[in-house]
Design goal:
The chain is built from two helices and two strands. By secondary structure, it is an alpha+beta fold. The radius of gyration is 13 Å and the shape is globular. The two termini are 18 Å apart.
């Protein structure tokens, strides 16, 4: 059956990473793991676009595809 994420809750979830001292790739993996655990999708594409002040522009992309058993 289908699941739906509430947009406001998802926004607050993403904002919770704002002050966390993690490397961007680790944040992407954590978000992907959480989304897979909650939604149990067949596939999922995640793209994080970091525009930091005074730093480097970083884009992290990660793909997930459920294994078929």
């Amino acid at each position: 059956h289908r699941k739906l994420l509430e947009l406001k809750s998802f926004k607050y979830y993403l904002l919770s990473y704002r002050q966390v001292g993690m490397v961007q790739e680790h944040v992407a993996n954590r978000i992907l793991q959480d989304m897979v655990a909650v939604c149990q999708p067949r596939s999922l594409a995640l793209r994080l676009d970091y525009k930091t002040r005074g730093g480097n522009h970083t884009v992290v992309e990660i793909l997930y595809k459920a294994s078929e058993v």
